[in-house]
Amino acid sequence: MADVIAQIYGIRTVEDARMVIDYGGEHIGVSYGKIKRTPGQLDCAQAKEIFEGVQPQAVRIGLTVAEDIDEISDNLRAVLPDVLHLSGDIEAIDPDQIRELKRRFPSLKIMQAIPVLAGVPLDGQPVMDYVRDYSPVSDFFLIDTKIAKATDIGATGVTHDRAIDRKIVESTDVPCIIAGGLDASNVAQAIAETHPYGVDSFSLTNYDDERADTLRCKDPAKVKAFIEAAKNA
To answer: What pLDDT, on the 0 to 100 scale, is given for residue 117?
Structure first.
């Protein structure tokens, strides 16, 4: 049985958050902020309700794609998660700026998204440079697929070369959570190939129909199957 944590993203209601916890998920991921930047992003009041509704059972992850640390700080003053997931352009917020965020919010942990381009070999992208530069300021890495023309990282439902994940995991002491096109059918193999700290799912644990665009977007059957597959790997 795999000793990995399950992180489920795209949580938009307390009900879905509690459902994830009941099925064994440890990390609850919520995208929020005062300025609307991504589909499905919540406002601060909605995020606060969810975060207050999952304590103390879950680690509360707040995602932002904002690139200005003053804007990010304003959101954190309104709603402070356990972990801030930086998922915008990685080069827009450098390690010194992350140190400043940690100075402003001493209890805050940082999950830095590491972008991996699908279909591009490791030596053709700067992945390992990012790992080296951001390891000193990151409490977690979220290794996720990046679409070449996108500025933000993840939420693609697209897989990438898991050998790159394995290389990253072996190269750093930062706990690594792998993402990108994971579902119940492939998560066990991904764990076997990479030996990560945790696994993440957003797109492929949503409903397949119009409910994916509502607040109750998570499919309980998919969430349950994903977590069980991860835990039984």
So the answer is: 87
User: Amino acid identity, residue 58?
Assistant: A
Q: Which residues of the chain are modeled with pLDDT < 50?
A: 152, 154
CA 112 to chain centre: 9
Whole-number pLDDT of residue 61: 98
Looking up tokens 């930086």, which residue turns up? Answer: 86
DSSP secondary structure letters along the chain = ----EEEE----SHHHHHHHHHTT--EEEEEB-SS--STT-B-HHHHHHHHHHSTTTSEEEEEE----HHHHHHHHHH---SEEEE-S-GGGS-HHHHHHHHHHSTT-EEEEEEEEETT--GGGS-HHHHHHHHGGG-SEEEEEEE-TT-SS---S-----HHHHHHHHHH-SS-EEE-SS--TTTHHHHHHHH--SEEEESGGGB-SSGGGGSSS-B-HHHHHHHHHHHHT-
Q: What pLDDT is attached to residue 51?
A: 97
CA atoms within 13 A on the CB side of 22: 9
CATH number of 5-231: 3.20.20.70
Q: Measured between alpha carbons, how far is residue 115 from residues 46, 69, 89, 154, 155 in Å?
A: 28, 20, 9, 8, 12
> Which residues have C-beta within 8 Å of that of residue 170, sequence separation ≥ 6?
none
